[in-house]
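ARCHIVE CARD
CATEGORY: sequence design from structure
SOURCE FIELD: tokenized fold
FIELD CONTENT:
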């Protein structure tokens, strides 16, 4: 099927430790996506993405000037860069919340077919109870359980479905509930670890994670560095880490002079 490679669910996850941060998670729905990981079909891709906003005074402000990136399927990539360089805006464009002024965006999106039966991932009758299920072993107070369940459902855009019976959800929505379950269970060890775990599980989830924290790079398969509305460099973690540290050293060296 021609559209078999285009199947997937994408979600914006807000990081509870830093609500300004967000991650784009793309969950392919067909194992062919995974098998095709050596082929040039990415999970998330942007080519020459530009976006300008018009201020209240009518000034056209370029926010994204030339952004290109590519996240292979089944991998966790990180998007880094200084404050205000355009990371969140780029993520919103990739997620389809904002239209680019120019350039192209490709994200695996839900289509008509789910290969891995999501009914195997959801075990309780309602969305809320399903997400709470995995917390049973953690000996948490009822308030803590409620808080984790609503936070994780909110993170995957499913909070308004909390009372819905599972069987009334679409395949993609069931997959989001499964991700929310993983996030709820893992909030102590950090959402980044939960996302890493989801991404590692058979390579069926791909994620793009926005962060300022270099230490989070250890969870990533690769990273993209942005500056002033442009993607500057994309590569493996060690290359990007060295690149950023060199920049920081130059910056601090400048002040020592
Ligand atoms: N609608 C808008 N109107 C005016 N300026 C905007 C708008 N959206 C974004 N910007 C500006 O575009 C730039 C990029 O913003 P964005 O939030 O994408 O940066 P960021 O890299 O995520 O920043 P941070 O790391 O501080 O969260 C900022 O200077 C921001 O003020």
């Amino acid at each position: 099927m021609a559209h078999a490679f285009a199947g997937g669910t994408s979600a914006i996850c807000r990081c509870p430790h830093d609500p300004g941060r967000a991650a784009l998670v793309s969950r392919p729905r067909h194992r062919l996506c995974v098998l095709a990981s050596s082929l040039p079909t990415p999970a998330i891709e942007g080519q020459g993405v530009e976006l300008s906003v018009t201020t209240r005074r009518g000034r056209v402000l370029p926010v994204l000037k030339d952004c290109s990136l590519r996240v292979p399927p089944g991998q966790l990539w990180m998007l880094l860069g200084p404050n205000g360089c355009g990371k969140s805006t780029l993520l919103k464009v990739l997620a389809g919340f904002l239209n680019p002024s120019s350039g192209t965006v490709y994200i695996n999106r839900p289509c008509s077919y789910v290969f891995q039966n999501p009914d195997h991932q959801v075990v309780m009758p309602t969305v809320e109870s399903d997400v709470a299920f995995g917390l049973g072993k953690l000996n948490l107070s009822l308030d803590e359980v409620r808080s984790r369940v609503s936070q994780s459902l909110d993170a995957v855009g499913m909070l308004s479905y909390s009372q819905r019976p599972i069987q009334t959800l679409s395949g993609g929505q069931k997959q989001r509930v499964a991700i929310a379950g993983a996030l709820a269970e893992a909030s102590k060890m950090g959402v980044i670890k939960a996302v890493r775990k989801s991404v590692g599980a058979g390579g069926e989830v791909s994620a793009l994670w926005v962060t300022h924290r270099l230490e989070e790079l250890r969870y990533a398969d690769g990273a993209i560095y942005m500056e002033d509305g442009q993607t500057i460099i994309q590569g493996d973690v060690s290359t990007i880490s060295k690149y950023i540290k060199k920049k920081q050293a130059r910056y601090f060296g400048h002040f020592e002079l």
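CARD ANNOTATION: The CA atoms of residues 152 and 180 lie 5 Å apart. The pocket of adenosine-5'-triphosphate is lined by residues 20, 53, 55, 61, 63, 81, 83-89 (CB under 6 Å).
SHELF: design records, drawer C
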